[in-house]
Please model this.
Amino acid sequence: MADVLNHGGDGGDEPLHQHANRLQADCQTYFDTKEGTYLHTRENQKYLSRVVGTYVRQFVHPYFDRWANVPEEQKARATGCVYEFFDVNHRRYSKADYKLIVDGIEDTAARRYRQYKANVNAYIRDKGTAVPYRCLTADVWEKCIERSSSKKFKSDRQTQDWPSVIETFKVNHQRNSDWVNKRAAQDYEKMVEEREEQTQQASSSGVAVNEHDVVLKVLGERKGHWRAVGRVLRGTSRSHSSTTTLQD
Model:
Protein backbone atom coordinates (compact mmCIF):
# COMPACT_ATOMS: atom_id res chain seq x y z
CA MET A 1 0.00 0.00 0.00
CA ALA A 2 2.86 2.37 0.75
CA ASP A 3 4.03 2.11 -2.87
CA VAL A 4 0.58 3.08 -4.10
CA LEU A 5 0.30 6.06 -1.79
CA ASN A 6 3.70 7.40 -2.75
CA HIS A 7 2.49 8.09 -6.29
CA GLY A 8 1.23 11.49 -5.16
CA GLY A 9 -1.51 13.53 -3.55
CA ASP A 10 -5.26 13.51 -3.95
CA GLY A 11 -5.76 16.95 -5.46
CA GLY A 12 -5.53 18.73 -2.10
CA ASP A 13 -2.46 19.83 -0.19
CA GLU A 14 -1.91 16.68 1.86
CA PRO A 15 0.51 14.12 0.32
CA LEU A 16 -0.62 10.53 0.53
CA HIS A 17 2.70 9.19 1.74
CA GLN A 18 2.06 10.79 5.14
CA HIS A 19 -0.46 8.03 5.79
CA ALA A 20 1.51 5.13 4.33
CA ASN A 21 2.70 3.88 7.70
CA ARG A 22 -0.90 3.54 8.89
CA LEU A 23 -1.94 1.12 6.18
CA GLN A 24 -1.44 -2.56 5.63
CA ALA A 25 -2.26 -4.80 2.69
CA ASP A 26 -5.88 -5.93 2.41
CA CYS A 27 -7.24 -3.00 4.42
CA GLN A 28 -10.78 -3.69 5.50
CA THR A 29 -13.34 -1.28 4.13
CA TYR A 30 -17.08 -1.05 4.65
CA PHE A 31 -19.87 0.39 2.57
CA ASP A 32 -23.01 2.27 3.51
CA THR A 33 -26.04 0.09 2.82
CA LYS A 34 -28.19 1.48 5.64
CA GLU A 35 -28.51 4.96 4.14
CA GLY A 36 -28.39 3.61 0.61
CA THR A 37 -25.43 5.60 -0.72
CA TYR A 38 -23.27 2.45 -1.18
CA LEU A 39 -20.14 4.54 -0.66
CA HIS A 40 -17.17 3.48 1.44
CA THR A 41 -17.19 4.46 5.09
CA ARG A 42 -15.42 4.02 8.45
CA GLU A 43 -11.71 4.24 9.18
CA ASN A 44 -10.25 3.52 5.72
CA GLN A 45 -12.74 5.68 3.81
CA LYS A 46 -10.29 8.40 2.81
CA TYR A 47 -7.62 5.93 1.76
CA LEU A 48 -9.82 4.05 -0.68
CA SER A 49 -10.88 7.22 -2.46
CA ARG A 50 -7.29 8.49 -2.59
CA VAL A 51 -5.89 5.26 -3.96
CA VAL A 52 -8.59 5.23 -6.65
CA GLY A 53 -7.62 8.81 -7.49
CA THR A 54 -3.96 7.83 -7.76
CA TYR A 55 -4.74 4.98 -10.15
CA VAL A 56 -7.11 7.12 -12.20
CA ARG A 57 -4.29 9.62 -12.76
CA GLN A 58 -1.83 6.85 -13.55
CA PHE A 59 -3.89 4.78 -16.00
CA VAL A 60 -6.69 6.95 -17.42
CA HIS A 61 -6.11 9.61 -20.07
CA PRO A 62 -7.68 12.96 -19.09
CA TYR A 63 -9.10 13.93 -22.48
CA PHE A 64 -12.36 11.97 -22.59
CA ASP A 65 -15.56 14.00 -22.20
CA ARG A 66 -16.84 11.83 -19.38
CA TRP A 67 -16.07 8.65 -17.45
CA ALA A 68 -18.58 6.69 -19.53
CA ASN A 69 -16.41 7.31 -22.60
CA VAL A 70 -13.22 5.97 -21.01
CA PRO A 71 -12.11 2.63 -22.55
CA GLU A 72 -12.99 -0.36 -20.38
CA GLU A 73 -9.34 -1.41 -20.14
CA GLN A 74 -8.38 1.91 -18.55
CA LYS A 75 -11.39 1.80 -16.22
CA ALA A 76 -10.50 -1.72 -15.09
CA ARG A 77 -6.92 -0.75 -14.25
CA ALA A 78 -8.10 2.27 -12.27
CA THR A 79 -10.75 0.48 -10.20
CA GLY A 80 -8.85 -2.80 -9.91
CA CYS A 81 -6.68 -1.31 -7.17
CA VAL A 82 -9.67 -1.46 -4.80
CA TYR A 83 -9.82 -5.23 -4.98
CA GLU A 84 -6.03 -5.55 -4.96
CA PHE A 85 -5.32 -3.46 -1.86
CA PHE A 86 -8.60 -3.48 0.06
CA ASP A 87 -10.56 -6.35 1.55
CA VAL A 88 -13.92 -5.76 -0.14
CA ASN A 89 -15.57 -8.80 1.41
CA HIS A 90 -18.67 -9.69 -0.61
CA ARG A 91 -19.78 -12.11 2.13
CA ARG A 92 -20.76 -9.16 4.33
CA TYR A 93 -23.45 -8.08 1.89
CA SER A 94 -26.35 -9.47 -0.09
CA LYS A 95 -25.84 -10.03 -3.81
CA ALA A 96 -28.03 -7.04 -4.61
CA ASP A 97 -26.13 -4.79 -2.21
CA TYR A 98 -22.76 -6.00 -3.47
CA LYS A 99 -23.68 -5.11 -7.05
CA LEU A 100 -24.57 -1.60 -5.90
CA ILE A 101 -21.29 -1.42 -3.96
CA VAL A 102 -19.40 -2.18 -7.18
CA ASP A 103 -21.38 0.63 -8.80
CA GLY A 104 -20.37 2.87 -5.89
CA ILE A 105 -16.69 2.13 -6.51
CA GLU A 106 -17.26 3.04 -10.15
CA ASP A 107 -18.90 6.30 -9.04
CA THR A 108 -15.85 7.08 -6.89
CA ALA A 109 -13.58 6.59 -9.89
CA ALA A 110 -15.83 8.82 -12.01
CA ARG A 111 -15.66 11.61 -9.43
CA ARG A 112 -11.88 11.37 -9.18
CA TYR A 113 -11.68 11.44 -12.99
CA ARG A 114 -13.72 14.65 -13.11
CA GLN A 115 -11.36 16.17 -10.55
CA TYR A 116 -8.32 15.01 -12.54
CA LYS A 117 -9.65 16.60 -15.74
CA ALA A 118 -10.44 19.81 -13.86
CA ASN A 119 -6.83 19.96 -12.62
CA VAL A 120 -5.50 19.47 -16.16
CA ASN A 121 -7.87 22.09 -17.56
CA ALA A 122 -6.87 24.59 -14.86
CA TYR A 123 -3.19 23.95 -15.64
CA ILE A 124 -3.76 24.67 -19.34
CA ARG A 125 -5.74 27.81 -18.51
CA ASP A 126 -3.20 29.18 -16.03
CA LYS A 127 0.16 27.99 -17.39
CA GLY A 128 -0.43 27.33 -21.07
CA THR A 129 0.52 24.30 -23.15
CA ALA A 130 4.29 24.62 -23.59
CA VAL A 131 5.12 22.20 -20.77
CA PRO A 132 2.96 19.05 -20.35
CA TYR A 133 1.01 18.55 -17.15
CA ARG A 134 3.03 16.38 -14.76
CA CYS A 135 3.87 13.00 -16.32
CA LEU A 136 1.59 13.07 -19.38
CA THR A 137 3.16 11.71 -22.54
CA ALA A 138 3.45 13.90 -25.63
CA ASP A 139 0.57 12.22 -27.49
CA VAL A 140 -1.78 12.33 -24.48
CA TRP A 141 -0.87 15.97 -23.84
CA GLU A 142 -1.59 16.84 -27.46
CA LYS A 143 -5.08 15.35 -27.19
CA CYS A 144 -5.69 17.29 -23.97
CA ILE A 145 -4.75 20.49 -25.80
CA GLU A 146 -7.08 19.62 -28.68
CA ARG A 147 -9.93 19.02 -26.26
CA SER A 148 -9.34 22.27 -24.37
CA SER A 149 -9.43 24.27 -27.61
CA SER A 150 -12.57 22.62 -28.99
CA LYS A 151 -15.77 24.66 -29.36
CA LYS A 152 -17.75 22.20 -27.24
CA PHE A 153 -15.27 22.42 -24.35
CA LYS A 154 -15.28 26.22 -24.42
CA SER A 155 -19.08 26.23 -24.44
CA ASP A 156 -19.20 23.86 -21.46
CA ARG A 157 -16.83 26.08 -19.48
CA GLN A 158 -18.91 29.18 -20.18
CA THR A 159 -22.15 27.58 -19.03
CA GLN A 160 -20.82 25.75 -15.95
CA ASP A 161 -17.42 26.50 -14.47
CA TRP A 162 -18.23 24.56 -11.29
CA PRO A 163 -20.44 21.46 -11.01
CA SER A 164 -23.77 21.81 -9.23
CA VAL A 165 -23.47 20.42 -5.71
CA ILE A 166 -27.20 19.74 -5.55
CA GLU A 167 -27.22 17.86 -8.85
CA THR A 168 -24.13 15.94 -7.74
CA PHE A 169 -26.12 14.86 -4.68
CA LYS A 170 -28.81 13.56 -7.05
CA VAL A 171 -26.30 11.60 -9.13
CA ASN A 172 -24.74 10.05 -6.02
CA HIS A 173 -28.11 8.98 -4.60
CA GLN A 174 -29.69 7.45 -7.68
CA ARG A 175 -29.14 4.10 -9.33
CA ASN A 176 -30.54 3.66 -12.84
CA SER A 177 -32.59 6.85 -12.37
CA ASP A 178 -34.22 5.51 -9.18
CA TRP A 179 -33.60 7.04 -5.75
CA VAL A 180 -31.70 4.79 -3.37
CA ASN A 181 -34.16 5.68 -0.60
CA LYS A 182 -37.05 8.05 0.18
CA ARG A 183 -34.94 10.24 2.45
CA ALA A 184 -32.53 11.10 -0.36
CA ALA A 185 -35.40 12.02 -2.68
CA GLN A 186 -36.96 14.24 -0.02
CA ASP A 187 -33.65 15.96 0.76
CA TYR A 188 -33.09 16.65 -2.94
CA GLU A 189 -36.54 18.20 -3.34
CA LYS A 190 -35.96 20.39 -0.29
CA MET A 191 -32.62 21.60 -1.67
CA VAL A 192 -34.15 22.40 -5.06
CA GLU A 193 -36.96 24.35 -3.38
CA GLU A 194 -34.50 26.23 -1.16
CA ARG A 195 -32.31 27.08 -4.15
CA GLU A 196 -35.32 28.42 -6.05
CA GLU A 197 -36.38 30.50 -3.06
CA GLN A 198 -32.91 31.99 -2.63
CA THR A 199 -32.69 32.66 -6.37
CA GLN A 200 -35.93 34.62 -6.29
CA GLN A 201 -34.82 36.60 -3.25
CA ALA A 202 -31.49 37.44 -4.87
CA SER A 203 -32.87 38.34 -8.31
CA SER A 204 -33.14 42.04 -7.49
CA SER A 205 -29.55 42.36 -6.30
CA GLY A 206 -27.83 40.13 -8.88
CA VAL A 207 -25.80 38.28 -6.26
CA ALA A 208 -24.72 34.65 -6.57
CA VAL A 209 -26.60 31.84 -4.85
CA ASN A 210 -24.10 29.59 -3.08
CA GLU A 211 -25.24 25.97 -3.33
CA HIS A 212 -23.08 24.91 -0.41
CA ASP A 213 -25.11 27.26 1.77
CA VAL A 214 -28.30 25.66 0.44
CA VAL A 215 -26.99 22.19 1.27
CA LEU A 216 -25.90 23.35 4.71
CA LYS A 217 -29.34 24.75 5.50
CA VAL A 218 -31.19 21.60 4.40
CA LEU A 219 -28.81 18.85 5.54
CA GLY A 220 -26.93 20.50 8.38
CA GLU A 221 -23.19 20.63 8.97
CA ARG A 222 -20.64 17.99 9.84
CA LYS A 223 -17.26 19.18 11.05
CA GLY A 224 -14.61 18.85 8.36
CA HIS A 225 -17.14 17.98 5.65
CA TRP A 226 -19.45 19.62 3.20
CA ARG A 227 -22.63 17.62 3.26
CA ALA A 228 -23.35 15.90 -0.07
CA VAL A 229 -19.81 16.74 -1.21
CA GLY A 230 -17.31 15.19 1.17
CA ARG A 231 -14.18 16.08 3.13
CA VAL A 232 -13.10 19.71 3.12
CA LEU A 233 -9.51 20.01 1.90
CA ARG A 234 -7.26 22.36 3.84
CA GLY A 235 -7.13 25.81 2.27
CA THR A 236 -10.58 25.43 0.67
CA SER A 237 -13.46 27.78 1.37
CA ARG A 238 -17.14 27.70 0.60
CA SER A 239 -16.78 30.89 -1.42
CA HIS A 240 -14.86 28.84 -4.02
CA SER A 241 -17.75 26.54 -4.77
CA SER A 242 -20.85 25.95 -6.88
CA THR A 243 -22.77 29.14 -7.44
CA THR A 244 -25.61 30.31 -9.61
CA THR A 245 -24.85 33.77 -11.01
CA LEU A 246 -27.84 35.94 -11.80
CA GLN A 247 -27.59 37.92 -15.01
CA ASP A 248 -29.91 40.31 -16.83
Notes: The beta strands are 27-28, 30-31, 40-41, 86-87, 174-175, 178-179, 208-210, 225-226, 230-231, 243-245. The two ends are 53 Å apart (CA to CA).
